[in-house]
Amino acid sequence: MKKVLITGAASGLGRALALRFAREGADICIADINMDGAAETLTLVEKAGGKGWIHELDVRSEDAWKRLLNEVESRWQGIDVVINNAGVATGDRIDAGDWAWWDWIIDINLKGVALGCRTFTPMMKKQSSGTFINVASLAGLLKAPSMSSYNATKAAVVAISETMHFELMPYGIGVTALCPGFFRTNLNHGMKTSDPDMLKFVDKVFEASALDADDIADAAYKAMLKNQKICNPHPAGRRAYFFKKYLPFLFNKGMINMANGLKKREDQRKNVAAGKEGKEA
After folding, report:
1. Cβ count near 224 (within 10 Å)
2. Pairing state of beta strands 130-135 and 51-56?
3. Could you give phi then psi for residue 204, rounded to 5 degrees?
4. Is 150 a residue of the active site?
5. What domain range includes position 280?
6. Bridge partners of 90?
7. Are residues 151 and 271 located together in one domain of the fold?
8. Cα–Cα separations (whole angstroms), residue 28 to 19, 173, 203, 262, 270
9. pLDDT at 208
10. What is the pLDDT of residue 280?
């Protein structure tokens, strides 16, 4: 029975990953800051044929990770899979939004993943086996305009994962960076943005996605079995990455068009605001 730890497993992709492994009969640690949601995931895991337990975890805290490590050692005496899934979203141009949001997203999306890897790598080295799945994003590969802080954290997760993929291979440890594009999940519910149109845009592309969280979880599971360095599950995402790599002039044209559209929207908002101020004066 595989012993699997998943952060951010109280909902969304984390829950879908838990259910995917549950169907393989895994024993799953559902780690999240949301204990009510974690309990709901546990119930679903047991119905799906797995077993598990819940653990309250703030991925930003080194002490919290140490407590989780102690719990894993006590319960399992080892581990097979660590999935660093917990993450948050921001959507803003480089000169917009609160600077505090940078600290928030870096602490969770980047440092949270790094802490998870640092915490459990020694255990995996000792047992000469194990796998990390680090949830990045297609944004970490393509880096579209108006998402600077989010892109930065996800690109960093890709970089950490690629480094670890080779660094840990001699120890029998696999590492995969999961890089999904937009899909139907709850990531946008806590998204921080100063752009009133950003959430509308994200909702629209979420609904248009051909894949859902279950599809992404299944792709991640299959990539893990192959020790795939990068898992880019969306067909559209793979095409976009192909264009960036082999036809950069077309990719760059698309990014410039997107940026021009953003500027046009910003100019329109400024003109509307100026008109309102003129009337009030």
Report:
1. 21
2. unpaired
3. -65, -45
4. yes
5. 247-281
6. 192
7. no
8. 9, 19, 31, 43, 51
9. 60
10. 63
Helices (H), the chain: 12-22, 35-47, 62-75, 100-105, 112-127, 139-142, 148-167, 198-208, 213-225, 235-246, 248-280
- CATH code of the domain in which 66 resides: 3.40.50.720
Q: pLDDT, tens digit, for every residue of 16-54? A: 999 999 999 999 999 999 999 999 999 999 999 999 999
Number of separate domains in the chain:
2
What are the per-10-residue average pLDDT scores of the chain (281 residues)?
A: 95 97 98 98 97 98 98 97 96 90 97 98 98 96 89 97 98 97 66 76 64 94 97 90 91 89 81 67 55
Q: pLDDT at position 192, please?
A: 87
Are the C-beta atoms of 145 and 255 separated by less than 8 Å? yes
Residue 67 lies in a domain: yes
User: Which residues lie closer than 8 Å to 177 by C-beta, 6 or more apart?
Assistant: 134, 136, 140, 157, 158, 161, 162, 165, 229, 230, 231
- If you search the block for the tokens 């299944």, which residue do you land on? 218
Does residue 171 sit in the same domain as residue 34? Answer: yes
Of residues 150, 171, 221, 246, which has the active-site annotation? 150
- Phi-psi region at 96: left, alpha or beta (left = phi > 0; alpha = psi -120 to 50): beta
- Does 160 lie in the same domain as 259? no
Q: Write down the pLDDT at residue 156.
A: 98
